[in-house]
Amino acid sequence: MTENLSARRGMLIAGFAALALLALVAAFDNQGTHTWRLDQMTGDREETAHSWTAAPVQALSAFDWRVAPATGEPTRIFLGFLGAAVLVVLFTFLLVLLVCRGVAASRGRWALFAASWFATAAGAGLALVAGSAIAGESLVIGATSGGTRFSYGDTYYLMLNAGLVFGLFAGWLVGLVAVITYGVSEGADGNGDGPGYTSPFSYDYGSAAPTSGPDYSFSPGSPYSASSSTPDYGNSEESSASAPTQIVPPPQENDPYGGGNRSY
Description:
The longest helix has 32 residues, at 153-184. The protein has helices spanning 7-28, 34-42, 46-49, 54-60, 75-100, 109-135, 153-184, 235-242. It contains eight helices and no strands. Helix 5 packs antiparallel against helix 6 (109-135). Mean pLDDT is 77; it is low at 192-201. By secondary structure, the chain is mainly alpha-helical. Helix content is 51%, strand content 0%. The protein has a domain at 18-188. It is rod-shaped, with a radius of gyration of 46 Å.
């Protein structure tokens, strides 16, 4: 029966996968890159706005967080983007941790990679929906207000779609980190395969056998053999045993009466 990942190893994999996503969101979606990302998506130059990088940059800019609200930006929108950036890391961690419960402890790399990729997309969609609930409207990069109200039904589909597209371009990184952690943590399952563990079945029971001593086993030449009625204790006994037995009568007492009747 195939053994699944242990809880300890699953926590390790999900933790490093979430840290990789946190590093991506923190480095790419911060306010320092905001102007460059807007130029890649909506620049005046045609080669910039319609280049092959425009769609990936727009997808990865779904969590446009910043340290302080921009000029004229409502606080609720600022908190919505910030909350979504934090929640995407949390949701991805929980989903990858859930995925690890169904991944085999060995030969489960491809399943973990694909499931972690999808978990990133699902976590991003849920985080954007939660962030839109905080902001009260849909979260769109570069828009200070005027987005679709959260109470509208199409807002959910818009945010889920944005999360799935984000996962399409960012999920492979999370899956790759999860697979790498999977490979280097093979000894963290606690099943005795790690270094320093000695299986009880590898004990050499021959070392506990008694040392060599007298051999009491049966053999044809043994003095205890059935073919010999007397034990063999040496050559002298062998010669006496092989000679015929002679019955010596007891010595006769001298009869002064010559064998006649005695008179009393």
